[in-house]
Amino acid sequence: FGPVAPVLSFSTVDEAIAFTSELGPAARVLLEATPAQRDAAIAAIREMLGKILTPTGIRRGYAAWIVTAER
After folding, report:
1. Which residue(s) pair with 10 in the sheet?
2. End-to-end CA distance of the chain, in Å?
3. Is 17 in contact with 49 (CB distance < 8 Å)?
């Protein structure tokens, strides 16, 4: 087993926002936010994602920890 370079890939900013809004740490914050807070957060996410949008879309690396234990 060797290192893997996982990548998230989205065609559009809207696609990336939909993913971000439903999964991961931002999803929890957005779920508990007031409508005004949610709108402000989505606007900030949209601005940030717009800065990394390329002609081929948005590609971002990601990582996850997989932890197992035995007793």
Report:
1. 58
2. 24
3. yes
State the average pLDDT over residues 37-48: 94
Amino acid type, 55: P
Q: Please state the length of the chain.
A: 71
The sign one gets for the Cα dihedral 53, 57, 61, 65 is positive
User: Rounded to the nearest 10 degrees, what angle do helices 25-32 and 35-52 cross at?
Assistant: 150
**Measured between alpha carbons, how far is 45 from 37 in angstroms, rounded to an integer?**
12
The stretch 11-26 carries a mean pLDDT of: 89
In terms of phi and psi (left: phi > 0; alpha: psi -120 to 50; beta: otherwise), the region of 27 is: alpha
